[in-house]
Specification:
Keywords: Membrane, Signal, Transmembrane, Transmembrane helix. The chain has 481 residues and is of the alpha+beta class. Helix content is 31%, strand content 28%. The protein has helices at residues 2-20, 240-244, 282-294, 309-343, 353-381, 384-394, 396-403, 409-418, 451-471, and strands spanning 26-28, 31-33, 47-49, 51-58, 61-76, 85-87, 94-100, 109-115, 120-124, 128-131, 143-150, 153-159, 166-172, 180-187, 191-196, 202-207, 209-221, 229-233, 249-253, 256-261, 265-267. A hairpin with a 2-residue loop joins strand 11 (143-150) and strand 12.
Amino acid sequence: MIAMAAAMLTIVLLGVGFAAVPTSSCGEGPVEVACPTDPVGPHGRSVSDTFFFVHRPLGENGSITARLTSMTGVITYPPPDHDEIVPGLVPWAKAGLIVKDGTAPGSSYAALMVTGGHGVRVQHDYVHDVAGGPGGVGAGSPRWLRLTRSGGTITGYESADGVRWAKVGAAHLPGLPATVRVGLFAASPGDLTLQRTPLGASLPESRFTQVTADLDHVSLDGAPAAGWSAAPVGQMGRTDWERYHRAPGLVRSSGTFSVTGTGDIGPVAEGGHTARSTLIGLAVAMVIVIVTAAGSRSRRADDAGAGGRILTAKAVVIGTAAFLTGLAGAGVVVPLGSAILRARGISVLALPTLTGLRLVVGVAALLAVAGVFALALGTLVRRAWVAIGVAISVTVLPYVVAALPLLPDDVSRWLLRLTPAAAFAVQQTVREYPQVIAHYAPSGGYFPLPWWAGLAVFCGYTAAALGLAVLRPRARRTRWR
């Protein structure tokens, strides 16, 4: 039990130590400022909500219509030479119409947009995405867009001529107030490329991008008489390009609205810390559990005998002790470490309460299965040092080399599919979203299997090891030499 207590303290102390030690800072020129934090969306998760917004009030029933005639943009210092600013749009640059519950970042919204490379879309509340017609806009191929509101339902339509309309999709926004903001928007996420390391691992690099959209024939129905307001949602205008070349904003000329913006609207896929960051001591704690379980001895020499009853009893004891160790350690460090990081002004991705509980229980289950796995190996090979070496080599080692990163992404993914290290997926609290540009790899916290599937892989290995240990003929008890 002393070893299990040490494992629990390892999880807590390393996690709290990581949270308390300064690891990053933010500044504007020579002045250090508080690092920005991500807003929280309607579903309790951290989101990106940065775009330029031209808006007016809209009541419970009404619509906005506009013709999008042009989308242009810039990408700063792209490969291969990273030495120039080039014209172009990233695939998920977006511009169009949006209905939003106020202008606060993280508030509920529904948007109808044309993208740089994915056609027309209806997106709402950061995680939902519906595809419309393919293609972009140009001088000879404008896109008419229309958003209608009926209570809490927002519906998007597109048209090539402003006469024949096709429905793209609808969104139901519960709790939408009687008066919302409606208008035009523009956003452009960073341009992502991957830099290869000598061993083949990939390191993400993101560059600033900007989009300018020209819209005309803008009309509103059901909106009170009011002028247009124009301002960014979220932070922008801080790069040299925006300061000295083209600032975000609105330019109106002869009925045309030219809207320039940067940023993105969607779930946060990269940046900031996750709850997994506070579990930095988990791998070390697993080593302690493995050493303890593989080296455990019985006063009797036939643990695998008597129909496996003794081995089963030991597995229950070790599994329970390891489960409680993980439950206590993760139950303390996840909320405490996250609170320390936030108190220091460091962004931590928010997650729903049930997801946090699943994370804590998953970590406990991971340590429990690891303990039983090491016990079974120790009984099977009857050399504690061999069992410990094998257990660490197929659990902790694949996880470490995949997470650092050291190996090519595909190799890391296969290691975390085929080995018992797949069970480390219980730490995953972030999801992949096709509409968000990100480096979806184990080094970024994205495991190739769902948490339950990864844990099932480890359970399968453990069941096989237990079965072989039970079937092996009686012999000496586990030895260290």
